[in-house]
Amino acid sequence: MRTIPWLTASVVGLLIAGCAGISSAPSQEERQALAPTGKLRVALYLGAPASIIRGATPDESKGVGFDLGKELARRIGVPFEPVVYPSPGAILGGLKSDEWDITFFGPSPERESVLNFSAPFLVIEHGYIVPAGSAISTIDAVDRPGTRIGAPQGGSVNAYLVRTIKNATVVASPSVPVGGEMLKSGKIDVFAANKANLFELSDKLPGSRVLDGRIGVDEVAIALPKGRENGMAFVRRYIEDAKSEGLVKAAVQRAGLRGAADK
Questions:
Q1: Do 238 and 231 contact (CB within 8 A), yes or no?
Q2: Buried-most residue among 54, 65, 107, 162 (CB within 10 A)?
Q3: What is the dihedral of CA 232, 234, 240, 241, to 10 degrees?
């Protein structure tokens, strides 16, 4: 019997696609570890392109964590439920109450004591923003007596500044948007965060400037609570697939994220 070449190729392609779909589906143990309540509860914090920028409707929301969390839920085969907090620190508070299943965070010693992390898939520079008319023009000029530096409470930038700032005063802000209001009202002189958040703030604060250079970086990874180790292999496969399929790049572009650095 003569074989039709294009038909053979099509069948082989379908078989390969089918096998890929089967292999990428989570096992029952993985699904239970990732979504024990039957839905994927993704912890996100407001005002951050790497996490979530809330839209007028749920469909209009965007953010790297929001988009990647939604796609992960689809691949697991469960409903997606964003659990939104005002700050990174509040996310850790929600962990104690078992309010969420995964989040998008950078590793730190404190976080690694309660969370397991995938490999980082995104790196964002940390920096400073100053208001219009500020005499501060360089990063080196920030750590001076009398300077008040705002930073999001519970975030990695805040923890870094508390360890390293010698002369200025570090002031915790409840959230990134509140930090912008504090800068605008003169309650702080400088605000520190990852640059994706700072560029968002600068768009809303005429005359403000994000200073050149960086004071560190945020490595963004997927994090699961300790005790959910059975889900880590699936998460690691997912984030590698998301990078190779262009999903991370698309989420970054849709969120309008600026300030990404080379890994």
A1: no
A2: 65
A3: -160
What would the DSSP string read from start to end of 52-102? BB--SSGGG-B-HHHHHHHHHHHHHTS-EEEEEESSHHHHHHHHHTT--SE
CATH T-level fold of 28-123+218-255: D-Maltodextrin-Binding Protein; domain 2 (3.40.190)
Domains 28-123+218-255 and 125-217 share a fold: yes
* pLDDT tens string 129-154: 999 999 999 999 999 999 999 999 88
Cβ atoms 163, 149 nearer than 8 A: no
Residues 6+ apart with CB under 8 A from 150: 171, 172, 173, 179, 182, 183, 187, 188, 190, 191, 192
pTM for this structure? 0.78
